């Protein structure tokens, strides 16, 4: 849902997922928040940090994850470019998909809409295509918004959580 701020600019309500499984993971999440703020992105809410096994390879280091509710004037494409730049500034390098990384920032939801854009060969879809299957997204999202509704699946966050395997729910912990 878009709202105008007091200056008349479009204000976008966005949920971001931040993850890290290399070096000082907690510090990486906090540093990613700092970078977002320095780009004029206002953090409205932040979940606790959750610890989960690396997926799909459990032999990789465990992940620290958090969900943020932010407000921004940026479009989906501009926000995506900013996020990719932040990841690069923090030391993220090109690696195979799902490999360990210092910083991973995903756009989970953008104005509660279903959107797809193509940028440099990457397809960006919101809500995030796999978010409804990931405990490290759903639990922190539930922490900050118990009434969130998936616009594509037409299910609320509680129903999405109940669809997770009990082992997924038991395997995640928060700091």
Q: Which CATH first-tier class would you pick?
A: Alpha Beta
Q: Mean pLDDT score, rounded?
A: 93
Strand content: 25-35%
Q: Any idea of the CATH topology?
A: Alpha-Beta Plaits
Helix content: 25-40%
How many helical stretches? 5
Order of helices and strands: EEHEEEHEEEHEEHHE
CATH architectural name? 2-Layer Sandwich
The multimeric state of the shown protein is single chain
Give structural notes.
The chain is an alpha+beta fold. The chain has one domain: 7,8-Dihydro-6-hydroxymethylpterin-pyrophosphokinase HPPK (Alpha-Beta Plaits, 2-Layer Sandwich), CATH 3.30.70.560. Helices cover 29% and strands 31% of the residues. The chain contains 5 helices and 11 strands. The chain has helices at 25-38, 76-89, 135-144, 157-162, 166-171; strands at 3-4, 10-20, 42-46, 50-52, 63-72, 104-110, 115-119, 122-126, 149-150, 155-156, 173-174. Strands 1, 2, 3, 4, 5, 6 and 11 form a 7-stranded antiparallel beta sheet that branches. A two-stranded antiparallel sheet has the order 7-8. The chain has a two-stranded antiparallel sheet with strand order 9-10. Strand 9 (149-150) and strand 10 (155-156) form a beta hairpin. It starts with a strand and ends with a strand. The model has no long low-confidence stretch (mean pLDDT 93).
Quick take:
With 175 residues, the protein is α+β, with helices and mostly antiparallel strands. It has helices spanning 25-38, 76-89, 135-144, 157-162, 166-171; strands spanning 3-4, 10-20, 42-46, 50-52, 63-72, 104-110, 115-119, 122-126, 149-150, 155-156, 173-174.
């Amino acid at each position: 849902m878009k709202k105008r701020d007091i200056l008349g600019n479009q204000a976008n309500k966005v949920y971001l997922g931040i993850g890290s499984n290399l070096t000082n993971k907690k510090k990486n999440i906090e540093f990613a928040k700092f970078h977002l703020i320095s780009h004029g992105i206002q953090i409205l809410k932040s979940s606790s940090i959750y610890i989960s096994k690396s997926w799909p390879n459990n032999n990789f280091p465990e992940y620290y994850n958090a969900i943020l509710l932010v407000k921004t004037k940026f479009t989906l494409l501009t926000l995506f470019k900013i996020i990719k730049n932040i990841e690069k500034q923090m030391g993220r390098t090109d690696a195979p998909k799902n490999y360990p990384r210092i910083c991973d920032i995903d756009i989970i939801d953008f104005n509660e809409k279903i959107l797809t854009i193509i940028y440099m060969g990457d397809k960006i879809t919101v809500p995030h295509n796999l978010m409804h299957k990931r405990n490290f997204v759903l639990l922190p999202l539930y922490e900050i918004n118990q009434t969130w509704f998936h616009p594509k699946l037409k299910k609320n966050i509680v129903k999405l959580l109940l669809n997770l395997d009990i082992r997924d729910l038991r395997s995640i912990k928060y700091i």
